[in-house]
């Protein structure tokens, strides 16, 4: 008699023993708070943060690791969370832009620098830039604008506000790390020695 269980197309008995569970418990810290959640083993960290914790600063842009809109800090390093499985967050310390504000709601230096330097247009790319800038600033090293351009090359701004973003990141880095030497970055300004050419 034909049986689905043991017929030619049915699973072999030993295969039945190797089913992986579809959901796993993940314990980690998110923005300084310990959390324990059951997660789908296929879920990205982006979906985990947005759907389970309403951390919507974590944007879904390309979802293939190309644009940086979904960047979050994992143990102090900036990662694109769209290509990072939620189950890999086990035991990790994760920070999003929401967690960078003070408890009274005041902005961090890097967040304020983006406001002051008009480095925000539609704002879609902004949280990702701020997360990566936070990692850069934590290194305690001076960066020129050109060096920052390379450091942030994995972030895209569809509004093309790159110059102001770079200025904001350099300003915050200088303030946080106490660098007095501030590179004069000329944006739509005419240098003194060139002014005669325009008169
Ligand atoms: S959405 Fe993750 S890198 Fe673009
Ligand atoms: S401000 Fe619009 S994508 Fe950067």
From TrEMBL:
All copies of domain [2Fe-2S]-binding, residue ranges: 96-170
Domain named 2Fe-2S ferredoxin-type: residues: 30-77
Enzyme class: oxidoreductase
Highest taxon, organism lineage: Bacteria
PROSITE patterns listed in its UniProt record: 2FE2S_FER_1 (PS00197)
Record keywords: 2Fe-2S, Iron, Iron-sulfur, Metal-binding, Oxidoreductase
GO biological process, one term: purine nucleobase metabolic process
GO MF, one example: 2 iron, 2 sulfur cluster binding
UniProt EC number: 1.2.99.2
Keyword check for Iron-sulfur: yes
InterPro entries: 2Fe-2S-bd, 2Fe-2S-bd_dom_sf, 2Fe-2S_ferredoxin-like_sf, 2Fe-2S_ferredoxin-type, 2Fe2S_fd_BS, Beta-grasp_dom_sf, Diverse_Oxidoreductases, XdhC_XDHase
NCBIfam families documented for this protein: XdhC_XDHase
Protein name listed in UniProt: 2Fe-2S iron-sulfur cluster-binding domain protein
Source taxonomy: Bacteria, Bacillati, Bacillota, Tissierellia, Tissierellales
Gene: cutS
């Amino acid at each position: 008699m034909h049986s689905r269980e043991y017929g030619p197309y049915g699973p072999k008995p030993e295969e039945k023993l190797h089913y992986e569970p579809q959901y796993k418990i993940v314990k980690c810290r998110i923005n300084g708070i310990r959390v324990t959640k059951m997660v789908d083993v296929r879920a990205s960290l982006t979906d985990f943060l947005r759907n389970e914790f309403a951390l919507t600063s974590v944007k879904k842009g390309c979802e293939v690791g190309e644009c940086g809109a979904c960047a979050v800090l994992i143990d102090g390093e900036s990662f694109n969370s769209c290509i990072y499985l939620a189950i890999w967050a086990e035991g990790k310390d994760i920070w999003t832009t929401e967690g960078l504000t003070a408890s009274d709601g005041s902005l961090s230096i890097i967040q304020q620098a983006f406001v002051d330097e008009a480095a925000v247009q539609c704002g879609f790319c902004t949280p990702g830039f701020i997360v990566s800038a936070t990692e850069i600033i934590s290194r305690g090293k001076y960066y020129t604008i050109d060096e920052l351009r390379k450091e942030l090359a994995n972030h895209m701004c569809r509004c093309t506000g790159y110059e102001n973003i770079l200025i904001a990141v350099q300003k915050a880095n200088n303030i946080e790390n106490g660098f007095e030497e501030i590179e004069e970055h000329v944006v739509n300004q005419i240098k003194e020695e060139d002014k005669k050419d325009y008169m």
